[in-house]
Input
Amino acid sequence: MRLIFLGPPGAGKGTQSKLLTKRFGARHISTGDILRDHRVAGTDLGRLAEGFMRHGELVPDELILKMIEGELERSPRGFIMDGFPRTVAQAEAFDALMDSRGVPLDAVVLFDVDRDTLVTRLTSRWTNPKTGKSYNAITNPPPGPGMRDADGTELIQREDDKAETVSKRLDVYREQTEPLVAYYLKRGKLVKVDGLAPVEDVTRQIVSLLSPELQAS
Ligand code: AP5
Output
């Protein structure tokens, strides 16, 4: 399985990536999660990425591409790319990388969600820092009392989920990432799901768009 999940911040890419990689045994490659891990570990990459992420801007392509090459090496059973590529330059470089390995992309899944819903979802998202499990104060409240997970872990909000940073991230998506819709449409790779549907329904939509071979894998 070699899939790209494309869509604006808050469209549900991470939620669906986690569910589907668990089901199909592929690797979940979230460039955002990898960068956040680097920040926590205090690596050079983490320090370089910090300012961009805090302001809702994209991290420079060359840093991201170096990271992706390493991730592919660790994905023998395929992958779901969550948050990559995000610019046409990243998509072109990724195509070249896949060509050099002789492995085609199966599909690019576009998540369709309106801006108001995205803002509401992101500003009410809470995450378990230990497991990465994501909740939503409105649509999927955490099980524990207050903002806590079932095991009592205190949930946290991402610093880039503040309203003003969310707005910036959505503008950056429109300007720099949305051109990828035309890019992949032209290459016959794009399929679209209704990201406003309930989580289980979005999963069903994605699975139904996969080839019978992939569904059975
Ligand atoms: P990243 O971490 O990739 O953030 P993002 O793309 O902005 O994606 P999100 O994680 O915010 O949204 P999502 O679509 O995964 O939604 P989720 O499933 O969590 O990137 C962060 C930063 O890192 C970037 O701003 C940039 O600086 C940098 N970066 C990362 N990759 C880069 C790259 N390639 N190039 C350059 N820079 C890069 O869902 C959101 C909420 O909605 C949750 O609360 C969830 O429970 C809820 N929800 C999900 N689905 C549904 C549903 N169907 N119905 C109701 N609620 C739902």
Observations:
- The chain has a mean pLDDT of 94.
- The beta strands are 2-6, 27-30, 79-82, 107-112, 125-127, 134-136, 190-194.
